[in-house]
Each structure stands twice: as C-alpha cells, then as structure tokens.
Design brief:
With 224 residues, this protein is of the alpha/beta class. 45% of the residues lie in helices and 11% in strands. The protein contains 8 helices and 6 strands; from the N terminus they run E-H-H-H-H-H-E-H-E-H-E-H-E-E. It has a 6-stranded parallel sheet with strand order 3-2-1-4-5-6, sandwiched between helices. The longest helix is centred in the first third of the chain and has 18 residues. The chain starts with a strand and ends in an 11-residue tail after the last strand.
C-alpha cells in the first residue's frame, strides 16, 4: 500500500500562497520597515489559526485580515477587506499544476500497488483540486482530513487492516507526512519541495532507515 500526500507532493500548492504573501508583505511593510518582522507576525497568526480553524485558502485570507488588524492596531477597514478579498481568485482556479513526473509515475505505480490519497484541509477545496487533477482513478480511496497526526495514520491502519511495515507514506512535509507516519509504524518517502510551507517543516532523523529520501517524484519507480 502506498499512501500519497496531495498538496506540494502531487501538485504545486504553497507557491500560490507565497505569491500572495509577497504582495501582502509589499503592501504591509512601511518604507524602510522590516519585511521579515511582518512575515513573523503572519506566521504566528497562521500557526494559531491552523490549530483552531484548520487549513485552506479561506483560513489563509482570514489570517491576512487578522494580521492587518494586529499591525494597524485597529479594525480592518472596508477598503482593506476588499483588497484582501481581491486575492480570492488566486485560489479558485479550475486546474492544478501537477509536479513533473506525477501523472506517468502514478499510472505505473497503480498497476503494481494499491494507492490511497491522504490530504488535509478544507474538504470542499481539497475535493475540487483532486477532481480537476485527473488523478482520481489511480486511488482506491481519497481521504480529506482536518489534520494529519499519529491518530490519523492509526485510523487508516485500522480501517484497511494494514500491516504497517508493508505501507509507505509519501509526501513533502516532515511534520504532516513523515514524522506522524513513522510514529504510527509506517515506512515513509520524503520528497522535498522548495515551496513547502514553513509550518510543515520538521527535523527528520538522518539515521532512520525506514525513511527513503528521493529528489524527484519519478524516482519512486526505481523503488516500487
């Protein structure tokens, strides 16, 4: 059984958020101001909101509004709210940008193995991305969850009566894909993405032989 992450593993995702953040920081950083300090405020807000509100573009845009409120020390004006809402179309596209090698690699792997898709975030938003990706047919099932933690992986093990040592979790996020999967007894494949969200970082044990590190998605065919 191979379990795949979606965002920034199968298709680009966080790069879209980073483009908006760049524009936001340009707007919110005063002349001669500290751009990194503004980003730190936003990162803190996003970290807090991830715990209480979850993930996805709606939560992200809400975080931008909260960042404006904190930085300005007052309520967000109608003009500011409209400017933030103007970034909504960046996340409403009818397509996703597949990472190179994903389509053909999944097609081949699906002929050899059973595949699952495990993604977290807003259910409607994630389901839309899965649908437009054209990849749905490769997976036995698609699971959209609020959070990917040890309990999430343990539930999958129970639901499918899996033998953990025969299962691999494949993703770009140490925090959500690799570390909790390993804690649940699964093997893992780490495929870094240069645009991975800073809140998904985590320290991997370089001596962990049950974590396979690959440079590109297509490299999976050499191992599975």
């Amino acid at each position: 059984m191979l379990i795949f992450d979606a965002d920034d593993t199968l298709w680009e995702n966080n790069v879209i958020f980073e483009r908006v953040i760049d524009e936001f920081l340009e707007w919110m950083t005063p002349p001669g101001g500290d751009r990194a300090a503004v980003r730190a405020v936003l990162d803190g807000i996003e970290a807090a909101h991830a715990v209480t509100l979850g993930y996805g573009s709606k939560v992200f845009l809400h975080s931008l509004g909260e960042c404006v409120r904190q930085l300005r020390g007052r309520a967000v004006t109608a003009a500011e709210a409209a400017r933030i809402a103007g970034w909504t179309p960046a996340f409403d596209g009818g397509r996703v940008e597949l990472i190179p090698g994903v389509a053909e690699t999944l097609a081949e792997l699906a002929r050899r193995h059973e595949l699952l898709l495990l993604t977290k975030g807003d259910t409607e938003e994630q389901q839309r991305k899965v649908a437009v990706s054209g990849l749905t047919g490769h997976f036995r099932a698609v699971h959209v969850v609020a959070e990917k933690n040890v309990g999430t992986y343990e539930e999958l093990i129970r639901s499918y009566d899996l033998v953990p040592s025969a299962v691999w979790m494949i993703g770009n996020s140490p925090r959500s894909d690799i570390l909790p999967a390993r804690a649940a007894g699964l093997n893992a494949v780490f495929i870094p993405n240069d645009h991975t969200w800073v809140l998904e970082d985590g320290e991997l044990d370089p001596g962990d032989k049950k974590v396979l590190r690959l440079a590109a998605f297509g490299d999976l065919l050499r191992h599975f």
